[in-house]
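Entry 14: structure prediction run for Hydrogenase formation protein HypD. Input pasted below.
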Amino acid sequence: FSDPVLTRDSVGAVIDLAKKFKEEKGRIPVFMEVCGSHTMALAKTGIKTRLKEYVQLIAGPGCPVCVTDQKSIDAMIQLSQEPDTILCTFGDMMRVPGSKSTLMKAKTDGKDIRVVYSPLDSVKIAEENPDKEVIFLGIGFETTIPILVLAVLQAERRNVNNFSVWMTTKLVEPVLRALLHSGEVKLDGFLLPGHVSVVIGEHSYRYLEEEFSVSGVITGFEPVQLLSGIYKLLQHQLEKKVKIINDYTYVVKDKGNVVAQQLLEEYLEAHDEAWRGMGTIPKSGLVLKEKYARYDAKKKFKISIGEPRVTKCRCGEIVRRLITPEECVLFNKGCTPTNPIGPCMVSTEGTCAAHYQFMREV
Ligand code: SF4
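Run finished. Output tokens:
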């Protein structure tokens, strides 16, 4: 899927179809890649830059760090100040600026904050530190949520009562619905996320064709897979078809991962979640059910935070696709990957980081 000859041929095939689209409609097609890993892969492989005259590829709301709202970041930083606590999180979260500080700064100030590869590691840390409260900062979409639940399940089985999760989870369907209802962006189709789809399955996207008449292709992350997805979206447009296609059948099944779905149903319930730049979207996140409240850090620790400080960072508009990173005055000036001002530059899946690393004119 990353063979250079096949990639070059695929680019040619996409450009040929995109030219036909332009001849017919008098404009270039606009497709959205929902997933942050797709944004990075399309930038890194040069596909975005190579196709930019023919196909507009816009980044969707699928970078979990970027869509975590400022208030949650501030709450996480404040949580790190609690005595006798160990905070565990994924590496990307360490440098996300809150209103006044970052978790990285809190760590250098002596707070016990640890980067872990999996929430399960933080259960082990809790077992090894019975006199401390261990909190995992759990952000993520459907791909990550099952492992958060597994950590709770493991804590339950091992009777680890000093472990909890600060849940700030997000779901793909409510945000895509909100996006389409807002009418802010006119789209000709979606490149649908490969990883999330492994969990939720192909059938979860039927509403796109049935209610919104928008096509989507579930695809992988290699150049030929990405180009195949774009090619199929163009085909749909030219044949005037609306369809959801699973182009990633080797890992994505129609019903998804039923075991993971059952786990989520057993432990979690829908919750109105706040998104950066998009406000609160009804039932767009999942939180632990009341019977598991002892593992819910938001219930265990009462953190009160004020309104976040307003900064010049325009990530809120980036995640709503209202501007490109280059339109932010701080891009490549005050804000770079080594000195990020906002989460879209911090995250390895962030749109600003992708533009800085792979699409910047030098
Ligand atoms: Fe925020 Fe930096 Fe992106 Fe501007 S370039 S929107 S400051 S992350």
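Notes: The chain has a mean pLDDT of 92. Will compare against the previous run tomorrow.
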